[in-house]
Design a protein that fits this description.
The chain contains 11 helices and 23 strands. The protein is of the alpha/beta class. The chain has one domain: FAD/NAD(P)-binding domain. It has a 7-stranded mixed sheet with strand order 7-6-16-17-18-15-19, with helices on both faces. It has a 6-stranded mixed sheet with strand order 9-3-2-13-22-21. A 4-stranded mixed sheet has the order 1-12-11-10. A hairpin with a 5-residue loop joins β11 and β12. The longest helix is centred in the C-terminal third of the chain and has 33 residues. The chain is globular and about 60 Å long. The chain starts with 9 loop residues before the first strand and ends in a 17-residue tail after the last helix.
Length: 420
């Protein structure tokens, strides 16, 4: 038992085929896919529900195709949502189409923007239809159960501070960028330091506002991303890394003025930034652990690799991890014989794509974001302007944002019978 203590009286012990820690997109998608295939799954989530302020509310075409395959795409579209068909970059001179999703050869040629809490509720409700699925909320995982050189499960505290133990042939860490399981397992991510941080702000929508696009405003030493969240606008106001304290010192009115000048059609709403509670700073990071697994333990999503917010692809990459893991691990889990070679195969399949996305993000940050925050008047490099004038070139970032460098599809598999 890793880091156990004598006062840990275990109130209950259970066994399952796979225990997944973290009820975000990666963990919940993996739990659903495994449950559909007949694997006994326990999903542990530290919060009391999924209703909290997520920064990422996008569902990309590759995820929509997977949901369509398992019969959930229509249900997701029934939830209030927005659709992003283009991504524009605006300089002082003009607007350029950076990515055109409408040209993608897919049933879903757009990025859906929908409340992530409602998306996760939909996935969890579907998973509950399978008798071999169990969701435990307020499960604060604190320990790895280890024996014979491998991970055998976890221990967690419930909402009343009682200890419980779940044992399984496979434990999956899907608990985010500050992963507790990654720390307990002794994995250290290799980090890079992108040149910016992001201040997230929400504004109300009006009927006259632009529709079905994301806009990036660059110039005057400022950089802002405008995203349609269905019922609201989400603004990512980018600042030089480590400069948030200076921004706060300048005062909330200075922030209102800066956002209004950067995104003129939102200037009439900057008073909605009432105080600093309405402005959440994201410390931008890009990192990846060299090895995603050890016997009995697999890391996926942000636990294995933290993505920059550039392109808003972090959720998509995490869900692709979950799909790949389901494809490769379902049969071994059904047989109860998951080997480290099986876990190595998941990393081998996913790591090249993750690296490719991170390299693409670094290029955008260094060529666009960093120059856009220098304080000098910004112009897109001539070769970028030329490239963006060609529709075929605009397909490249659209495909990268929609699918990543390596397109992952869910392997066809019949679902087990659901509970009556």
């Amino acid at each position: 038992m890793a880091e156990s203590s004598a006062d840990e009286v275990v109130a209950s012990t259970s066994e399952t085929g796979c225990v997944i820690v973290g009820g975000g997109p990666a963990g919940t998608v993996l739990a659903l896919l495994l449950a559909r295939a007949g694997v006994a799954v326990t999903l542990l989530e530290s919060h009391a529900d999924f209703d909290r302020d997520f920064r990422g509310d996008t569902v990309h075409p590759s995820t929509l195709e997977m949901l369509d395959q398992i019969g959930l795409a229509e249900k997701l579209h029934a939830i209030p949502h927005g659709k992003m068909r283009q991504a524009l970059i605006r300089t002082k001179e003009r607007a350029y189409v950076m990515a055109d999703f409408s040209r993608l050869p897919t049933k879903y040629p757009y990025v859906l923007t929908v409340s992530q809490a409602k998306f996760l509720d939909l996935l969890a409700d579907e998973a509950r239809r399978y008798p071999n699925f169990r969701l435990v909320l307020r499960a604060n995982v604190q320990r790895l159960v280890e024996a014979d050189g491998g991970v055998k499960g976890v221990r967690y505290r419930d909402g009343e501070n009682r200890w419980h133990e779940v044992r399984a042939p496979l434990t999956v860490a899907a608990d985010g960028r500050f992963s507790k399981l990654r720390h307990l397992a002794g994995f250290e991510p290799v980090k890079t330091s992108p040149p910016m941080d992001v201040v997230w702000i929400r504004f109300t929508k009006k009927p006259t506002d632009p529709t079905e696009c994301a806009e990036i405003f660059v110039g005057g030493g400022r950089f802002a991303v405008v995203l349609d969240r269905g019922d609201a606008w989400q603004i990512g106001y980018c600042i030089l890394k480590g400069s948030f304290s200076a921004l706060k010192t300048a005062g909330i009115e200075a922030l209102r003025t800066a956002v209004g000048e950067q995104v003129p059609w939102l200037a009439d709403r900057v008073a909605e930034i009432r105080d600093w509670k309405d402005a959440t700073v994201l410390n931008v990071e890009s990192s990846r652990v060299p090895t995603w697994h050890k016997p009995g333990l697999l890391l996926i999503g942000d636990a294995a690799h933290v993505m920059s917010p550039v392109g808003g692809v972090g959720i998509n990459v995490a869900i692709q991890d979950a799909i790949a893991a389901a494809n490769l691990l379902t049969d071994p889990l059904l047989m109860g014989t998951v080997t480290e070679a099986d876990l190595t195969a998941v990393q081998a399949l996913r790591e090249p794509g993750v690296k490719g996305v991170q390299e693409f993000q670094a290029m955008v940050q260094n060529k666009l974001a960093a120059p856009g925050l220098t304080g000098k008047e910004f112009r897109l490099p001539w070769f970028v302007r030329l490239a963006l004038s060609l529709p075929v070139v605009r397909n490249v970032p659209a495909k990268m944002m929609a699918y990543g460098p390596h397109r992952v599809k869910l392997a066809p598999r019949p679902a087990v019978a659901t509970a009556p």
